C-alpha cells in the first residue's frame, strides 16, 4: 500500500492514475491532519509533491519525512532529495561539500563583515534571497554602493521574498513579448495584487539577517534546465529575457535535444547520483567552456511539452518518444519497497 497526499495539478494526479492503471493499492492521506503518522503507518511508501510556496507544508514536511523514514517507510521526496528545495543557502553548502561545479557564493551573517567585503570586492555580483522562483528574487548589484544598501536592508527591515516590483516588471515584459489580452490581464492582476492586502502575498517571508551574493557570470544568453529521475535524464535550454541576464521564468525555451551537450547529461547523472536524489531539476550556466550549477529542485514544471520528445538513459542513449516522469517517480518508489 502506498500513501499519497493528493494536490490537484501536482505530480499526484499522475501517481494516482498510475496506481489505478497498474492496480497498485494506494490510499489518499491528509498530511495536514494531526494523525498523519497513524494514517501512513501501515503503508510501505508515502508520496507528497509539496510546493515551494506551500508555507504550511514547509513548517513540517522535513520533520514528517524524516520521522517516516525512521520507521522504514519509503518516502518521495525523501530527505536527501527534498531538504534543499527552494533553499539556495542549503544548496551552497551542499554543492561546496561535494565539490560540485558551482558559482562562487558569498554568504554573510554579520552586517559589518558584509559591508567590509562590499567595499573591496569587484562588481557586478548577483544578490539572491535563499528562496524564490522564476528569478523573482535574483538581482544584479552593479557596484559597492548598491551592495551596501542591500546589505543594510538585509540586516534591517529585510527583503520581502514576494517581490512586487519584480513581479509586475516581469508580467509587463511578458505582455510586451506576447501582446495578448491574457498577458495584459496578468499585468493588471499583479498590480492589484501588489496594492491589495492579500493574504496570499502576506504569507511570503521577509528574509533578513543574512546576505547572499554570487559571482556574476557575464554574457550568458541562456541557461540549461536538466532533469534526472533515477537513470533517465532530459532537459532544455532557456533563453534569457531581453536586456536581462536571467533565464528562469522567461518562458523562452528551446526543447531541441541536440542543443544539450553530452557533457551536461553526464554531469547531471553524476551529481544526482552523488547526492542520492530521487528526482531533480538542475539549472546550469556555461562559463568558459564548463558548466556550473546554479540551483537544484526536486519538483519542477511538467507542462513543458518536452515529455513528448524523449530522454537519455544512463548509458547516454537517446530514447525517443513520449514519457511520464511522474510514473518513473512511483516506479522507483515501488522498486524500493
Ligand atoms: N551568478 C549568476 N550569474 C549569471 N546569471 C545568473 C546567476 N545566477 C542566476 N543567474 C540567472 O538568473 C536566473 C535565475 O536564477 P536562480 O538562482 O535559478 O533563481 P530562481 O530560483 O528564481 O530560478 C537563472 O536562470 C540564470 O539565468
Ligand atoms: Mg532557477
Explained architecture:
The chain has 337 residues and is of the alpha+beta class. It folds into three domains: 2-77, Rossmann fold, CATH 3.40.50; 104-215, ATP-grasp fold, A domain (Dna Ligase, domain 1, 2-Layer Sandwich), CATH 3.30.1490.20; 222-322, ATP-grasp fold, B domain (D-amino Acid Aminotransferase, Chain A, domain 1, 2-Layer Sandwich), CATH 3.30.470.20. It has helices at residues 12-21, 36-41, 57-70, 79-82, 88-97, 111-120, 144-154, 164-178, 181-195, 199-202, 262-274, 325-336, and strands at residues 2-5, 26-29, 45-48, 74-76, 105-108, 125-128, 138-141, 159-160, 206-207, 211-215, 222-229, 232-239, 253-254, 279-287, 290-297, 310-313, 318-320. The strands form four sheets. Strands 11, 12, 13, 14, 15, 16 and 17 form a seven-stranded antiparallel beta sheet that branches. The chain has a four-stranded parallel beta sheet with strand order 2-1-3-4, with helices on both faces. A four-stranded antiparallel beta sheet has the order 5-10-6-7, with helices on both faces. β14 and β15 form a beta hairpin. α1 crosses α12, α6 (111-120) runs antiparallel to α7 (144-154) and α8 runs antiparallel to α9 (181-195). The radius of gyration is 21 Å and the shape is globular. The relative contact order is 0.14. The model has no long low-confidence stretch (mean pLDDT 94). It binds adenosine-5'-diphosphate and magnesium ion.
Amino acid at each position: 500500500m502506498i500513501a499519497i497526499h493528493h494536490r490537484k495539478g501536482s505530480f499526484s494526479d499522475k501517481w494516482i492514475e498510475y496506481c489505478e492503471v497498474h492496480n497498485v493499492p494506494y490510499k489518499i492521506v491528509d498530511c495536514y491532519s494531526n494523525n498523519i503518522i497513524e494514517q501512513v503507518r501501515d503503508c510501505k511508501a508515502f508520496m507528497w509533491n509539496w510546493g515551494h510556496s506551500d508555507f504550511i507544508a514547509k513548517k513540517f514536511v522535513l520533520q514528517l519525512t524524516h520521522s517516516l523514514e525512521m520507521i522504514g517507510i519509503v518516502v518521495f521526496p525523501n530527505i536527501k532529495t527534498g531538504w534543499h528545495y527552494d533553499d539556495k543557502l542549503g544548496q551552497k553548502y551542499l554543492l561546496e561539500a561535494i565539490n560540485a561545479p558551482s558559482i562562487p557564493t558569498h554568504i554573510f551573517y554579520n552586517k559589518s563583515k558584509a559591508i567590509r567585503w562590499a567595499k573591496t570586492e569587484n562588481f557586478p555580483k548577483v544578490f539572491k534571497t535563499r528562496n524564490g522562483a522564476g528569478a523573482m528574487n535574483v538581482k544584479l548589484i552593479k557596484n559597492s554602493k548598491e551592495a551596501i544598501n542591500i546589505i543594510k536592508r538585509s540586516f534591517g527591515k529585510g527583503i520581502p521574498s514576494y517581490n512586487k516590483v519584480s513581479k509586475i516588471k516581469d508580467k509587463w515584459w511578458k505582455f510586451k513579448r506576447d501582446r495578448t489580452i491574457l498577458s495584459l490581464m496578468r499585468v493588471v492582476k499583479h498590480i492589484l495584487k501588489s496594492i491589495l492586502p492579500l493574504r496570499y502575498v502576506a504569507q511570503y517571508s521577509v528574509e533578513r539577517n543574512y546576505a547572499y551574493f554570487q559571482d556574476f557570470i557575464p554574457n550568458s544568453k541562456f541557461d540549461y534546465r536538466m532533469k534526472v529521475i533515477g537513470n533517465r535524464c532530459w532537459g532544455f535550454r532557456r533563453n534569457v529575457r531581453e536586456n536581462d541576464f536571467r533565464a528562469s521564468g522567461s518562458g523562452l525555451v528551446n526543447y531541441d535535444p541536440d542543443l544539450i551537450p553530452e557533457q551536461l547529461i553526464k554531469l547531471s547523472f553524476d551529481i544526482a547520483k552523488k547526492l542520492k536524489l530521487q528526482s531533480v531539476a538542475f539549472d546550469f550556466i556555461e562559463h568558459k567552456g564548463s558548466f556550473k550549477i546554479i540551483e537544484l529542485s526536486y519538483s519542477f514544471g511538467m507542462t513543458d511539452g518536452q515529455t513528448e520528445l524523449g530522454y537519455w538513459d544512463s548509458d547516454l542513449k537517446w530514447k525517443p518518444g513520449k514519457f511520464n516522469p511522474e510514473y518513473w517517480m512511483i516506479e522507483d518508489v515501488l522498486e524500493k519497497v
